[in-house]
Specification:
alpha/beta, 60s Ribosomal Protein L30, Chain: A, Alpha/beta knot, 7-stranded parallel beta sheet, elongated
């Protein structure tokens, strides 16, 4: 296939320019409703779970890699750009060693309908933390992650990198009014548990039940009072070593997997 795909010889190629603007600008990504997947792992997960990207950009010097050859072979020739590393380096704030990137429509789940297992993220602003929590949630079998308006953009490159494909393994809904959602969820029989740095029940002595939503708060301020007023369980991870708090990603992982241990996920061993 490689011989049949025209190779980009100019940095002025229009489709390449459009792709690289998406890499560089969050404003352009939001406006276009597109995001950029960097590296063979993310692209492979997208292919397996969603379908074909709109555009694939492959670094020419990496086209001897069998994995990249297999990825490119699945795409229509017209939607593949093979780009020399020198041109790639001019246009992308990314190392050419990543080998491949893909432009895809940003998936949207506009209906946060109640499910069995949820994570609520309130104003978690660090992209790495958001991506890490999404990765943890996907690994734990969380069906839906709801983000408040002031969380980091779930489809930003740093979040996608930290998520390692989690975006395509769990439903993600942004700009949710979490306190209102939590009150309605409880009214319909769900349990909402808040993860607190201190002052809550020892999480390992708690009783969690499905359907469940676990609320995780801002890195510095924790959860807002309005969301705390909507929960029915407040949980704290004991820290006998004397630290005041854990990184929000670590706290989320412990809390979510304690729910798994208690049998929230059907079929979990």
């Amino acid at each position: 296939m490689c011989d049949e795909v025209p190779r980009v010889s100019s940095a002025q190629n229009q489709r390449l320019q459009q792709a690289m603007r998406l890499v560089a600008s969050s404003r352009d990504r939001r406006k276009a409703g597109r995001c950029v997947l960097e590296g063979e792992h993310l692209v492979s997960v997208y292919l397996a779970r969603v379908g074909l990207p709109e555009l694939l950009v492959v670094v020419a010097e990496r086209m001897d890699d069998p994995v990249l050859q297999a990825i490119a072979a699945r795409m229509p020739n017209a939607d593949v750009l093979i780009v020399p590393a020198t041109i790639f380096a001019q246009l992308a704030a990314l190392p050419s060693a990543i080998g491949v990137l893909a432009v895809v429509a940003t998936p949207r789940d506009h209906a946060p309908a109640p499910r069995r297992f949820h994570v609520l993220l309130e104003d978690v602003q660090d992209p790495g933390n958001v991506g890490t929590i999404l990765r943890t949630a996907a690994a734990a079998g969380v069906e839906q992650v709801l983000l408040s308006k002031h969380c980091a953009f779930a489809w930003a490159p740093k979040v996608l990198r930290a998520g390692q494909g989690a975006h395509f393994l769990t439903a993600i809904v942004e700009a949710v009014k979490l306190a209102s959602w939590a009150r309605q969820f409880r009214a319909n029989g769900g349990q909402v548990a808040a993860a607190l740095a201190y002052g809550g029940q020892n999480i390992f002595a708690s009783t969690l039940r499905a359907p469940l939503a676990i609320a995780i708060g801002n890195e510095g301020c924790g959860l807002t009072q309005s969301l705390l007023n909507a929960v029915d369980a407040r949980l704290t991870i004991p820290m006998p070593g004397g630290m005041e708090s854990l990184n929000v990603g670590a706290a989320a992982a412990i809390t979510v997997f304690e729910a798994v241990r208690q049998g929230i996920v059907a079929g979990a061993a």
